[in-house]
Amino acid sequence: MDYLRQVRRGIDYIEARLDADIDLADVARHAGL
Q1: Distance CA 23, CA 32 (A)
Q2: What is the rounded distance in angstroms from the CA atom of residue 1 to the CA atom of residue 19?
């Protein structure tokens, strides 16, 4: 289930920054991948 938690954190990060340019590496870092 840890994988699903990481995916959820990545989605939350993206949703919080919908108006900004998002670097995929930042999403992965925030999700703990």
Answers
A1: 15
A2: 30
